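Bug report (template v2)

What were you trying to do?
Predict the complex of my protein with protoporphyrin IX containing FE.

What happened?
Run completed; filing so the output is reviewed.

Input:
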Amino acid sequence: MRETGAQPAYSSLPGAEQGVLIQSMVQYPGSRLTTAGEAWRQVRNQWIIPYGGALLLVAVLALALFYWRRGPLGGHLPDTGRRVERFTPFERSAHLLNAASFTVLAISGLVMAFGKFVLLPVIGSTLFGWLTYALKTAHNFVGPLFAVTLVIMIITFVRDNLPRAGDLGWLVRAGGMIGGQEVPSHRFNAGEKVLFWAGVLVLGGIVVGSGLVLDKVLPGLAYLRGDMQVAHMIHAAAAMLMMALFLGHIYMGTIGTRGAWQGMRTGWVDEAWAAEHHALWLADIRAGKIPAQRSSEPMPANLSPVEGTR
Ligand code: HEM
């Protein structure tokens, strides 16, 4: 980033920017050398919005094409009626709060970014004004909630996302999703682990960190216009990447894999589901290395524990 001196004049801006009407000249990646405000506007309107929008569209089209060609994965083994606990009530509640807050943030963020192009012409300026104001307010309040639940998710799931033998083989064959037999995996397969480290930890951390700057809740920062512009560019770019990645997660967690959503909704999966999707995890359960049930939640009445685990 290149910068040249701000032009002193009269302004009623508080603090360090008093008297600075026009910001200094800067050149952000993707912008011309111009005033910081203009450079930020160029990066937002010429890069983040068009390319972010294109990325999300490509992600949706790719998933739709995959579903059309491949259909939902799994369901090749008949249910045994014997179940194992895949997620405890605590894990499910943490995930639900996190997923719900992410969804509010994603929808409100998409309206703030693209609403002007797709909603305003349809609903008119008055309604659009109220809607964006309500969604922006929701975004500012749900952001810190997402931050807290994200930390809880990271602490809760980090151990089972540590790399293990077999993960590389899984990645090389894309888990068998493109064709052929599903590759055996432990509790979480290598694809879920990549999502965890890249999506939850790295992108989640960047989106939350820059979001908290935009919310002006981090102590010790001056929150000058330039700081806010840089934080916004980082926030919006990382959020676009995260949304594209989680579209894949949401797809695999709902229509993309038979039984996956039920596992997160009830906490229990059938032995057959575990054998088909996480065979190494089930083998550890049968060997008694991992308990088939970790919470004290009573097993649903119509189910019976996996063979060999009492
Ligand atoms: C909004 C909709 C979402 C849906 C429908 C959804 C669905 C699911 C499902 C069905 C599973 C279980 C997969 C399995 O059994 O292996 C799961 C696991 C998980 N989800 Fe989500 N999810 C959503 C959003 C999120 C968000 C926003 C995050 C984090 C930012 C997240 C992080 C995780 C993690 C960490 C796991 C455990 C698996 C792992 O650690 O790799 N999910 N999700």
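What did the reviewer find?
Residues 203 and 243 are 10 Å apart (CA to CA). The chain has a mean pLDDT of 89.
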